[in-house]
Amino acid sequence: MSITQKPIDFLWFIPTSGDGSYIGASDLNRAPDNRYLREIAVAVDRLGYSGVLLPTGVSCEESFVTAASLAPFTERLKFLVAIRPGTASPAYYARLASTLDRITEGRLLLNIVVGGAPAELAGDGIFLPHDERYDHAEEFFQVFEDLLATGKADLDGKHIKAKEARLGFPSIQQPRPPLYFGGSSDAGIEFSTGRADKYLTWGEPPEQVAEKVARVRKSAAAKGRDVSFGIRLHFIVRETDEEAWEAADRLISKLDDETIAKAQAHFATASDSVGQQRMAALHGGRRDKLEVSPNLWAGIGLVRSGAGTALVGSPKTVAARLREYQEIGIETVIGSGYPHLEEAYRVAELLFPELGITTLPQRTGFGSEFSQRTVFSGGGHQTLRAVAAS
Question: Which parts of the sequence belong to the Luciferase-like domain (predicted)?
Answer without folding.
Answer: 9-331
